[in-house]
Write a structure and sequence with these properties.
Length: 279
């Protein structure tokens, strides 16, 4: 089947049909994912320069009887488009908070505990109240101060003043910090970003990947690290897979590292084992 018709109009082909169908299938089954208890969280360690585990990022997992394991890159966008992300995000927050407390009680102390927040979730009118309620239910002041919410550059498409106010209130009243995820992949201007009350930048895996591969890769990463330094932001490198990448990042002053080089995201119990074996 030809992808393009005579007049340059895209024709519907089997491939597109299959994609639409799987998108619809994901959407249909995603509605039952929470009631059927199919959503869980994995935890990926973040290590400091000395190789100590200082933080963790919670990552959503969906295991469905029909579809098998569905990647977040597939179901999170569907959850965003359908609005399901509001319920799903709330569930993820609560599960993550419970894990943070459980680990604390088991003697596993971390400096920070990061959770991804989608824009549609963040800008929902009920988000702040939800966070407040869940935090009050599960976490004392000491544990609250470990929370980091990872947001993305798409936030700049929103009412920036409202976004800033919400961030400031969550920081002032609950001690929650904010990290700019996937930094460098969006289209936001630097001046916009500097207005946000951020604590941390995460260098996107796409940049870390280029280290040792492309000519301009290292220069770009060095520039981002420099900028974080000027803006007094903590920086986390994500997607660190090789000793060469780690070495480059260390020589350029990066302080926190996350990636397969150390560990893939792990189920809760395996994270505990990993922590005990290293710290
Ligand atoms: P992200 O926030 O940028 O998360 C990092 C992704 O990189 C994760 O993919 C992680 O498994 C993967 N990763 C970590 N280290 C390495 C590495 O060394 N090499 C490679 N190749 N990959 C690595 P994952 O878990 O599939 O998540 C994909 C995206 O889905 C996340 O990207 C995030 O945008 C979104 N996501 C995941 N969980 C949640 C969630 O609970 N809420 C929201 N809103 N979004 C989520
Ligand atoms: Ca993230
Ligand atoms: Ca990221
Ligand atoms: Ca990324």
């Amino acid at each position: 089947v030809k992808a393009q018709g005579r007049d340059g109009v895209f024709m519907f082909n089997e491939d597109m049909a299959a994609r639409v169908e799987s998108r619809l299938e994901i959407e249909r089954l995603l509605h039952f994912a929470l009631p059927n208890d199919e959503i869980s969280l994995d935890y990926q360690p973040q290590l400091d320069r000395a190789g100590r585990i200082v933080g963790v990022e919670a990552l959503a997992r969906w295991n469905n009887a029909t579809l098998g394991a569905v990647a977040p890159a597939q179901f999170i966008p569907v959850a965003e488009q359908t609005g399901l992300i509001v319920e799903l995000g709330k569930y993820i927050l609560e599960r993550a908070f419970m894990t943070l407390r459980e680990w604390h009680e088991a003697g596993i102390e971390l400096e920070q505990f990061s959770i991804n927040i989608s824009m549609r979730q963040f800008t929902h009118h009920d988000f702040e109240a939800q966070v407040r309620e869940l935090v009050q239910r599960h976490l004392d002041a000491q544990l609250r101060s470990k929370l980091v919410f990872e947001i993305t550059e798409s936030i700049v498409a929103e009412d920036i003043n409202r976004v800033i106010e919400i961030m400031q209130r969550l920081t002032a009243t609950l001690g929650i910090r904010f990290s700019m995820d996937d930094f460098g992949t969006g289209y936001s201007s630097l001046s916009y970003l500097t207005r946000l009350p951020l604590d941390e930048l995460k260098i996107d895996r796409a940049f870390v990947c280029t280290l040792g591969r492309q000519e301009e890769g290292p220069a770009m990463v060095a520039t981002i690290l420099n900028m974080a330094d000027v803006l007094k932001l903590k920086i986390v490198a994500e997607g660190v897979e090789t000793a060469q990448q780690l070495d480059f990042l260390m020589r350029h002053g990066c302080t926190v590292f996350q990636g397969y080089y150390y560990s893939a995201p792990l189920p809760k119990d395996r994270f505990v084992e990993f922590f005990r074996s290293r710290n």
